[in-house]
Amino acid sequence: MVNIVASRHYTELLATHEELRQHLLQIEEFAAVQERRRIAREIHDSLGNALTSLNIQLQTALKLWRIDPSEAERFLTEAQKLGAVAIREVRESVYALRAKEGQQQSLEELITCVVENFHQTTGILPSTSISLSVSLPSKVVTTIYRIVQESLTNICKYAQATNVQIIVDTNLNNVLLVIKDNGKGFSLSQSKSGFGIQGIKERVTALQGNFNIETEPGIGCKITVEIPLEELPLLETKTRKTFQESTIIQENQQVNSPQKEIFIRQCERKLAELIGPIASFLVQKAIKNNPHVSCTELVKILAAEIPNLQKSQNFQQYLFSDLNQVAFAELGDG
Known about the structure:
Radius of gyration: 26 Å
Helix content: 55-70%
Largest sheet: 5 strands, mixed
Shape: elongated
């Protein structure tokens, strides 16, 4: 009876999870609307402010020209700087508005375009290394492209960097993106939504990926994104079927290997949300050092790797929920 109830709850949980995932995937469309609104705000705030200031500088220079040419020259120099700012803002806004053609272009072409725009704007040519050994789904292409675009925009506005590196690499299971700059960096504890970090996290989360950022004031910034290429819904369907079939087996029988692998991956995904891509390494290390580790022991080992006590407790509570206790408590104990 307990197994039947657990099976029903587990099925409902997976259905809820899939519904949530579909909502997350809709973030991309919502983000496009928000991006256009952001561009409109930036045109009004940044470009409008630059042009207004430019006009004031020119008017002042004109008034001073006959009285004190040297002083007028100072205002003209400042006006020239403001003009350069206005040109940069126009280029960024126009490029962002035209970026929708991404669905018809390859990832290499998209990154080349955004890199060329960055080069024209800043004078800095990022070094790029793109190695695509497999074909990427359109959603992954769009996500990688948007992350590169947002990151370069942030570097242009805030980082004061002189060197930027972009790496895209793939294997049969994952696509890895690394964006690194030697700019001024910033404190993660003081970062605001204006840096675009939250938007990048949402894009990665929608595709079940891992996101990590390494930065401190004075040491630049490194963004690492890892996105799985396998179709998670198919895996979840298989998981659901396997779990339901297992409920008719004797209560004390050891749970089969596929379910153990699924739980391990569940731990890995949850851990990655808290500490980034290094989660995969830590999970594999724990299993290698303890080949017959139980689910309870595995969760405790991984929780110890989370430096924040509250996050560590939340991690354990999530995996030690009533459902997981019923379905997986004896996983690997046999």
